[in-house]
Amino acid sequence: MTRFTIAIVGRPNVGKSTLFNRLAGKQLAIVEDTPGVTRDWREAAGQLGPLRFRLIDTAGYEDSYDDSLPARMRQQTERAIEEADLTLMVVDARAGLTPLDETFARLLRKGSRPVVLVANKCEGRAGEPGLLEAYALGLGDPIPFSAQHGIGLSDLYDAIVEHMPEEEPEDEEQPQTEPGLTVTGEDGEEVLDGDLLPDDAPRIIQMAIVGRPNAGKSTLVNRLLGVERMLTGPEAGITRDAIATDWEYEGRPVRLVDTAGMRRKARIDEKLEQLSVQDTLRSIRYAHVVVLMLDAELGMDKQDLTIARMVEEEGRALVIAFNKWDAVADKETALADLRDRLETSLSQVKGVPVVTLSALKGRNLDRLMAAVFQVYDTWNRRISTAQLNRWLAGLLEMHPPPLVAGRRLKLRYMTQIKTRPPTFAIWASRPEELPGSYQRYLVNGLRQDFDMPGVPVRVYLRKGR
Ligand code: GDP
Ligand code: GDP
């Protein structure tokens, strides 16, 4: 049977096998050597969402080697590319580009078949510089991806489907598994990817509630879970360090990520007076959306600001829950003070939603959850390149970048390189000379004009284009 064939190529250790295994489903088969033709590759029936294809992988057979591409490896790669309708070229975004990546890219640019560039190991921030470097390979926009964590599957889907013929023969019944649906990561940076679900299907939002001791976190959790108890946990599935509780709020699945600290407290029923920064950081890393709980009678202090900044640093979406609102006498002043504090000390996440509530009395919990869902959607937001460049042109017209040494800096082109959180790249003539104030102006303008309050917005400047 002929089938759309996808080859995975790239230098060793970039994650080809990991990607192969993620796309291969269960029907893994190693191709036997045909006499006379040695084909050193693995082959499997691949699957990505509803797409079915034949998958070949050149990894795992090469011996270790340095920066030169041995003739045998080159031959295998060339043959795989020839046999494939589409090639996935994988690079390691954490390691950055190497001369060997360039060699592979050159090989692929010579061919006439479509290539999709996959910047692997893009979970977390460590991959962002490498992701930007990958644009230089001349193979189109790289897809930010994590084979290990299952991030970027829907972008990969979009890129592949563009090159596939409309009617792929569908000969077997659809397997029930959704690749990329449940993903467990070692370091927990991303434990689940709902990316591949159809748009109307529920996506699991991972939510953490953090804050100083006595802010009312446990009270809130009990309230939330008490209302609609859809527990399948607590389930120690994520890792030994965090416990997740799955429940539903108005039909939307939510995974509440608990910290070791909260568990400890629940178990031995003693108050931990110290805020454990380690525990807090851990639950922030497991979360998509972080609810920072404040005691409204006390307002926002330095520790709270530290937590809020950690949320920003880790690229998570933030909602502030101003709790114990029932006990606050002068509500107006309390809120004004908080706004003031946010304005002066937390400009990194402008417009972060603040919800006043009473966990004890169960008031305003619906508004809290609405805010959580809203920032989650913003966090996943994708803005088209056309829209961004129209926006950039307008902005440049209104406020051109300053003159440096008598010359005007040019900002030429802009695109969104990833979501979760929204991250953008702008190509400029002399990016290193653009003043920090103008960069902040860009970030704030983006956040405001595209309505992205409460989530970190990142802009990288690159030279060229
Ligand atoms: P190959 O030689 O290209 O087939 O690479 P492998 O699939 O064997 O992966 C090389 C190493 O990178 C292994 O230790 C993997 O666990 C690791 N790896 C693969 N994908 C990812 C990823 O998305 N993120 C991170 N951090 N590591 C990954
Ligand atoms: P945690 O340490 O953040 O988990 O805080 P707890 O949930 O244990 O709450 C600390 C104290 O604040 C308890 O005595 C709660 O009853 C009280 N508390 C929690 N939420 C509210 C609220 O909305 N209003 C008032 N008045 N008290 C609250």
From TrEMBL:
<dbReference type="GO" id="GO:0042254">
    <property type="term" value="P:ribosome biogenesis"/>
</dbReference>
<feature type="binding site">
    <location>
        <begin position="258"/>
        <end position="262"/>
    </location>
    <ligand>
        <name>GTP 2</name>
    </ligand>
</feature>
<dbReference type="InterPro" id="IPR015946">
    <property type="entry name" value="KH_dom-like_a/b"/>
</dbReference>
<dbReference type="InterPro" id="IPR027417">
    <property type="entry name" value="P-loop_NTPase"/>
</dbReference>
<feature type="binding site">
    <location>
        <begin position="120"/>
        <end position="123"/>
    </location>
    <ligand>
        <name>GTP 1</name>
    </ligand>
</feature>
<dbReference type="InterPro" id="IPR006073">
    <property type="entry name" value="GTP-bd"/>
</dbReference>
<dbReference type="InterPro" id="IPR032859">
    <property type="entry name" value="KH_dom-like"/>
</dbReference>
<feature type="binding site">
    <location>
        <begin position="323"/>
        <end position="326"/>
    </location>
    <ligand>
        <name>GTP 2</name>
    </ligand>
</feature>
<keyword id="KW-0547">Nucleotide-binding</keyword>
<keyword id="KW-0342">GTP-binding</keyword>
<feature type="binding site">
    <location>
        <begin position="211"/>
        <end position="218"/>
    </location>
    <ligand>
        <name>GTP 2</name>
    </ligand>
</feature>
<dbReference type="InterPro" id="IPR016484">
    <property type="entry name" value="GTPase_Der"/>
</dbReference>
<dbReference type="GO" id="GO:0005525">
    <property type="term" value="F:GTP binding"/>
</dbReference>
<protein>
    <recommendedName>
        <fullName>GTPase Der</fullName>
    </recommendedName>
</protein>
<dbReference type="Pfam" id="PF14714">
    <property type="entry name" value="KH_dom-like"/>
</dbReference>
<comment type="subunit">
    <text>Associates with the 50S ribosomal subunit.</text>
</comment>
<keyword id="KW-0690">Ribosome biogenesis</keyword>
<feature type="binding site">
    <location>
        <begin position="10"/>
        <end position="17"/>
    </location>
    <ligand>
        <name>GTP 1</name>
    </ligand>
</feature>
<dbReference type="InterPro" id="IPR005225">
    <property type="entry name" value="Small_GTP-bd"/>
</dbReference>
<feature type="binding site">
    <location>
        <begin position="57"/>
        <end position="61"/>
    </location>
    <ligand>
        <name>GTP 1</name>
    </ligand>
</feature>
<dbReference type="InterPro" id="IPR031166">
    <property type="entry name" value="G_ENGA"/>
</dbReference>
<dbReference type="Pfam" id="PF01926">
    <property type="entry name" value="MMR_HSR1"/>
</dbReference>
<feature type="domain" description="EngA-type G">
    <location>
        <begin position="4"/>
        <end position="168"/>
    </location>
</feature>
<feature type="domain" description="EngA-type G">
    <location>
        <begin position="205"/>
        <end position="380"/>
    </location>
</feature>
<feature type="region of interest" description="Disordered">
    <location>
        <begin position="166"/>
        <end position="196"/>
    </location>
</feature>
<keyword id="KW-0677">Repeat</keyword>
<comment type="similarity">
    <text>Belongs to the TRAFAC class TrmE-Era-EngA-EngB-Septin-like GTPase superfamily. EngA (Der) GTPase family.</text>
</comment>
<feature type="compositionally biased region" description="Acidic residues">
    <location>
        <begin position="186"/>
        <end position="196"/>
    </location>
</feature>
<comment type="function">
    <text>GTPase that plays an essential role in the late steps of ribosome biogenesis.</text>
</comment>
